[in-house]
Amino acid sequence: MSLLKEWKGVNGYMIKDPGTFFSAYNETHGIAYPIAFMLLSYLAVMLPFGVLVAVLNIASPTEAAIGLVLFLGLGIVYWIQGLIEALLAHGCAYLFGARGVSKTLEAYAFPTVVRYCLWWVPLVNLALGLYGLYLQIKALSAFHDISTGKAAIAALFLPVIFMVLVTVVIAAIIAAFVLDLGTQPGPRPAMSLLGIVV
Question: Where does it mainly reside (predicted)?
Fold first, then answer.
């Protein structure tokens, strides 16, 4: 069966009945299959917005093509980010007994369309993103035969670390700005004033 046909079938299950799919799925693929599946999914979720940009700029074919290429390029960037997230989750799941990186990649690849399909619609994107993350956790649990709690730890490890790092960086920037507001500039030597004037 072709990748496109399997992609359509799996996404149908992800929308209609993911629980049945996760419990019945027993196929074995190499690492290339989930990587290609995930790439196809990211390109599919970016394509509608890219086509919309192209249609709105139809009077300028160059701008239309650039808009379409930019959104497809953004899909590739998200694909790389998704692969990194899946590999880090696998590293964490490995500590709980998960074996087979292709299974983890499949657990992340299959719900990609659900997780990111309406990424440009506020609030809806948050709800679907959380539901897609839930599906990834359920898939990790089912594919690796580990508990849902352990799968959740593996799946949430990277997002939590990322949020902590972003919070620390933002707090440091705000603190530096606020602390800088309270300092008074001291007198400057004449040579530095001359350098500023020149």
Answer: membrane
